[in-house]
Inverse folding.
């Protein structure tokens, strides 16, 4: 378990270092991220470039009320920027982040029209928005609460599944610049993403190895538990 966690932290550190370095490199050639410009793009989009208004799917200030669309409020700036970039195709290669069966995600078409400046601006804006307690998801399945809590806090030792809290925090707040906030996230969305990780459609070696050792009941239980964290 300790060896696996060490490998996870090292691998994650390399990913984060790469994303942060890319952000710094981008900043060297463009203006620093502008939250106000990010808000404008989030609220109004840019139809001329095929960039839809993000608020349509992700709600006011990134607080989604649609279960299959994630809450983006209070997510780390670096994490959001990396995810938006991963939706984009580069040099005619498939996007790093794809949908089921390797098909393009709906976000691929939207992100295609976004510049590096757009990505940084929107990511900064969303990182500054509070998670709305009135619209954030909550745990609803009491029958799986104990199992979800066990997986979150202790993992599944017999299957070498580490505790989710090791990377995403005991309260699900994540680690800024490294791991996303999962507290208050819609369980339907979390289930979908864990299955994408498991299938390898969403490219992430660490999360693939973890999700690959979880069955559907494990995934549903821990997703519901994470939704109730604050």
């Amino acid at each position: 378990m300790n060896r696996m966690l060490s490998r996870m932290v090292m691998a994650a550190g390399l990913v984060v270092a790469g994303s942060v370095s890319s952000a710094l490199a981008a900043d060297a050639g463009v203006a620093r991220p502008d939250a106000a410009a990010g808000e404008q793009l989030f609220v109004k989009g840019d139809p001329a470039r095929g960039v839809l208004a993000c608020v349509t799917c992700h709600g006011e200030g990134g607080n989604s009320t649609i279960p299959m669309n994630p809450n983006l409020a209070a997510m780390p700036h670096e994490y959001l920027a990396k995810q938006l970039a991963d939706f984009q195709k580069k040099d005619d290669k498939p996007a790093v982040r794809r949908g089921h069966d390797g098909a393009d995600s709906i976000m691929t078409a939207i992100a295609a029209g976004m510049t590096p400046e757009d990505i940084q601006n929107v990511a900064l804006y969303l990182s500054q928005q509070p998670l709305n307690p009135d619209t954030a998801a909550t745990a609803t399945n009491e029958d799986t609460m104990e199992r979800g809590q066990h997986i979150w806090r202790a993992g599944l030792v017999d299957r070498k599944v580490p505790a989710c809290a090791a990377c995403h925090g005991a309260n699900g707040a994540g680690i800024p610049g490294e791991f996303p906030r999962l507290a208050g996230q819609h369980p339907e969305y979390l289930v979908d993403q864990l299955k994408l990780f498991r299938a390898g459609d969403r490219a992430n070696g660490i999360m693939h190895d973890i999700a690959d050792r979880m069955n559907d009941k494990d995934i549903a239980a821990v997703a519901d538990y994470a939704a109730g964290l604050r």
Notes: The first helix runs from residue 2 to 29.
